[in-house]
Amino acid sequence: MSQDKFAAAVCCIDGRFYQPLIMWAKKRLGVDHIDLITEAGPDKTISENKKPNIDIIKEQIQISIDYHNTMHVIIAAHDDCAANRVSPIEHCKHLKIAMKVMKGWKLPVELICVFIDADYNIEEI
Ligand SMILES: [Zn+2]
Fold first, then answer.
1. 95 CA distance to ligand 1 centroid (A)?
2. Topology of domain 6-124, CATH
């Protein structure tokens, strides 16, 4: 197993937001790598408990935990999301519901919710 430290991020497929999120997460968590679990509009998918997508997300988080000793999982939503066309305020509501759903999974990790605005500023919710 790698000695490097990993965290995981559940984020949208939208390619504009990977780099800012990865840079922020590495600094915030002091890790070397971020395992990216992509899903179009993950705040919507998870808050609505949409199957089978949610099971696939959960399975991939578990792989990150089992093989990379991931101790932190970020769930990210972003402005101008093609898969979840709602206001930033609505995104934050979806994130809070998604957080509750994920807490119910009883994973041995810290969960962190973030919203990324159109200028790539990242705010913890
Ligand atoms: Zn998106």
1. 13
2. Beta-carbonic Anhydrase; Chain A (3.40.1050)
